[in-house]
Automatic annotation (TrEMBL):
Record PANTHER family: GLUTAREDOXIN
Cellular localization per UniProt: Cytoplasm
This protein's GO CC annotations: cytoplasm
Protein name: Glutaredoxin domain-containing protein
Segments forming domain Glutaredoxin: 13-76, 101-163, 188-250
Alphabetical keyword list: Cytoplasm, Redox-active center
Superkingdom field: Eukaryota
SUPFAM superfamilies: Thioredoxin-like
Length: 278
């Protein structure tokens, strides 16, 4: 039992299997088709395999000990239970709770596209399930509707929690907060425009100092205008280049950064922020 607890402790998807088991193979293929990379434990290749198999039977895997599927540390069951959840649309819901951000979408839905683009622009890589492209999409859509999703897509889960009315709730987060969130994701963040010579100068300076800043080119990303207005509200005039070090806005970025550099104060500031180490 302790061996099982240790193996499933990572809280992801774990499948106890046997390398020669055809039903195990089918379950593994199902999860791979759903975009999941489960942790596979082949008990016939493990010296403790017999003890693990006995423990699985004690846990309730009575018909056959394998495949035994755990999600988030909890036993889901074997082939029948997993397939039943899948056909009913509930399996993906359980998987949704294991990812930081999950979006149920349709490839033809413009609002779904908007929501996905927003998360990508924020540097988030959500798990995306296109209901019009997966085999049990209709069942999942009905399950989403039962949860209160109207319309059914886009449906957004953050930390396993459903965000009701995601189009309005997610999109209308104050843009200033989105700027500050982006600014806090790396030691140095620069909001720039690809055509701005001063932005180019500032970026070159940081590169020469051995810094690898996060760069957001406002003229190349979908919500660049909104971010620019938010920067202006934060006091950036001109709006670019806008430099954040350690999550803090450097006001009058071009002149201030250059002054800090010439006075010898920039490198200590970068070291304190963790942007450089030497």
């Amino acid at each position: 039992m302790e061996a099982i607890t240790r193996i499933v402790s990572d809280k992801g998807v774990v499948i106890f299997s046997k390398s020669s088991c055809c039903m195990c193979y089918a379950v593994k293929i199902l999860f791979h088709d759903l975009g999941v990379n489960p942790k596979i434990h082949e008990i016939d290749l493990d010296p403790q395999g017999r003890e693990i198999e006995k423990a699985l039977i004690r846990l309730g895997c009575n018909t056959t000990s394998v495949p035994a599927v755990f999600i988030g540390g909890s036993l889901i069951g074997s082939t029948n239970e997993v397939m039943s959840l899948h056909l009913g649309g509930s399996l993906v819901m359980k998987l949704a709770s294991q990812k930081a951000v999950v979006i149920f979408s349709k490839s033809s839905c413009c609002m779904s596209h908007t929501i996905k683009s927003l998360f990508y622009d924020l540097g988030v890589s959500p798990a995306v399930y296109e209901l019009d492209e997966i085999s049990n999409g209709r069942e999942i859509e009905r399950a989403l509707q039962k949860l209160g999703c109207n319309p059914s897509v886009p449906a957004v889960f953050i930390g396993g929690q459903l965000i009701h009315n995601p189009t309005s709730t997610v999109i209308y987060i104050p843009m200033e907060k989105q700027v500050m969130k982006l600014a806090s994701q790396k030691a140095v963040v620069i909001f720039s425009k690809s055509s701005c010579c001063m932005s180019h100068t500032i970026k070159s300076l940081f590169y020469d100092l051995g810094v690898s800043p996060a760069i957001y080119e406002l003229d190349e990303i979908s919500n660049g205008r909104e971010l620019e207005r938010a920067l202006q509200k934060l006091g950036c005039n001109p709006s670019v280049p806008a430099v954040f070090i350690g999550g803090q806005l450097i006001h009058n970025s071009t002149s201030t950064v250059m002054s800090l550099h010439l006075s010898g104060s920039l490198i200590p500031m970068l070291k304190r922020a963790g942007a450089i180490w030497l």
